[in-house]
C-alpha cells in the first residue's frame, strides 16, 4: 500500500485535534495498519500526554531535524499496540526550528516505515500549522458545531487548497469534516448548529460525528486513546467508523446519541 | 422575568447559520481576490520578462472595489532607457493607449 500523510487540523484551538489524532491513529493501528502520530505543536506539545507516553520522551522532532538524534531514536512505540508509534514535538524550542527541508526529510523517512503518517496540527494559521499540512494527502478538519470553530475551519480549508504541496502541484487534496463535541439533543432543539448546517456551509464530505462525551475526557485523563480505553463507547464507535472510511469503506454516518441515565439527564442539562 | 419567557426555548442555531453564511461569503471573496492578484501579478511579470528586463517591484497590480464595480489596475513602470528608445507612434495609432494601464472587471 502507498503510505498516506494525513493532517488533523482546525484553525481554532480546543476543538479536539489532539484527542482525535490519538483516537484515529489508534483505530487505524487496531485495524492492522502501521501508524505514526506526529506532534507539530512545538512549544506546547500534548500528544505525548494524551497517548500516555509523556515519561518516555527522550528525543523529539527538532532533535532529528537538527541532527542531534536519529529518527529511530525519537520514535516512541506504543506499549499497547506495537504497530502504533509517536514522534513527539519539542517542548523547549520555538516554531522556527521546524524548517521546510527538515520536515520534508522526516516525512519522507516516515512514509517508508508507516502506512499512515498522522500529523497533529497546532492551533492557528502560523508556521507550525502550515508545516503540519504541507505534505498532507488527506486532511481531517476537526470542527465544533459553533460559530467561531466553523469560521476558522473555513479559513483552514482555504489554506489546504492553496498552501499545501498538493495544491501547488494542482493536485486535489482530500478533505474530510470531523464534527466533534456534538450534542444531538441540542441540535434538535435548535440550540446548536446541526450537522447539515455545518456541511452546507463548509461543503466538504463528512468523516464522522463524535459526541460530547465523558468517555473522551476519561481517556485523556488516563493517557489512552478512547478507542483503546473504552472501545464500546459511542465516541470510540465514531472514531472506528471514521477510520474505516479513511481506509476506503463506504459507511453511512449515524448521529451519535449519548445515552444518559436519569441522573445524567437531570444534571447534564443544568450544568451545560 | 416573565413566565412566558421561561418556557419559550430560544432557537439560536438558525441565527448562527445565517450569520456564518453572510460572513463567510464575504471572507471567501476577500481571500479569493488576494490569491487571484498574486497569480495575475506572477503571470504578467512572466510575460513582460520575455521581452524586457524589469524589476519585480516595478509591476503593481491592484484590485479596487467601489459599489458594484471592481477595477483592476495594472501599473508597469518601464526602464528609462527603453522609454527613450521607444519609437513615437503616429497620431492615428496613439488614439488608443500604447500600454494598457487599467481595465475593468465586472
CA-based shape of chain B: rod-shaped
pLDDT under 50 segments of chain A (min length 5)? 268-272
Radius of gyration of chain B: 25 Å
Biggest sheet features of chain A: 8 strands, mixed
Hey, which two chains have the biggest interface?
A: A-B, 17 and 17 residues
Annotation field: number of helices of chain B: 3
Which percent range fits the helix content of chain B?
A: 40-55%
Largest sheet of chain B: 3 strands, antiparallel
- Decide which structural class fits the backbone of chain A: alpha/beta
- Oligomer category: heterodimer
Count the beta strands of chain A: 8
Estimated radius of gyration of chain A? 18 Å
**Helix content class of chain A:** 40-55%
Which stretches of chain B are poorly predicted, pLDDT < 50 over at least 5 residues?
A: 91-106
Architecture blueprint of SSEs:
The complex is a heterodimer of chains A (272) and B (106).
Chain A: E1 4-9, H1 17-30, E2 35-39, H2 47-50, H3 61-65, H4 71-74, E3 76-77, E4 84-87, H5 100-113, E5 116-120, H6 127-134, E6 138-143, H7 147-163, H8 165-168, E7 174-182, H9 184-188, H10 195-202, E8 206-211, H11 214-222, H12 226-229, H13 234-246, H14 262-271
Parallel strand pairs in A: 1-5, 1-6, 2-4, 2-5, 6-7, 7-8
Antiparallel strand pairs in A: 3-4
Helix pairs in contact in A: 1-13
Chain B: H1 3-7, H2 13-49, E1 59-66, E2 69-76, H3 80-85, E3 102-105
Antiparallel strand pairs in B: 1-2, 2-3
Structure summarized in a few sentences:
The complex is a heterodimer of chains A (272) and B (106). With 272 residues, chain A is of the alpha/beta class.
Please characterize this protein's 3D structure:
The complex is a heterodimer of chains A (272) and B (106). In chain A, helix 1 (17-30) crosses helix 13. With 272 residues, chain A is an alpha/beta fold. Chain A is built from 14 helices and eight strands. Chain A has helices spanning 17-30, 47-50, 61-65, 71-74, 100-113, 127-134, 147-163, 165-168, 184-188, 195-202, 214-222, 226-229, 234-246, 262-271; strands at 4-9, 35-39, 76-77, 84-87, 116-120, 138-143, 174-182, 206-211. Residues 268-272 of chain A have low confidence and may be disordered. In chain A, strands 3-4-2-5-1-6-7-8 form an eight-stranded mixed β-sheet, with helices on both faces. In chain A, a hairpin with a 6-residue loop joins strand 3 and strand 4 (84-87). The longest helix of chain A has 17 residues, at 147-163. Helices cover 44% and strands 16% of the residues of chain A. Chain B is rod-shaped and about 85 Å long. In chain B, a hairpin with a 2-residue loop joins strand 1 (59-66) and strand 2 (69-76). Chain B has a three-stranded antiparallel β-sheet with strand order 1-2-3, covered by helices on one side. Chain B has helices at residues 3-7, 13-49, 80-85, and strands spanning 59-66, 69-76, 102-105. The model of chain B is unreliable at 91-106 (pLDDT under 50). Chain B is built from three helices and three strands. Chain B is an alpha+beta fold. The chains are: A alpha/beta (272), B alpha+beta (106).
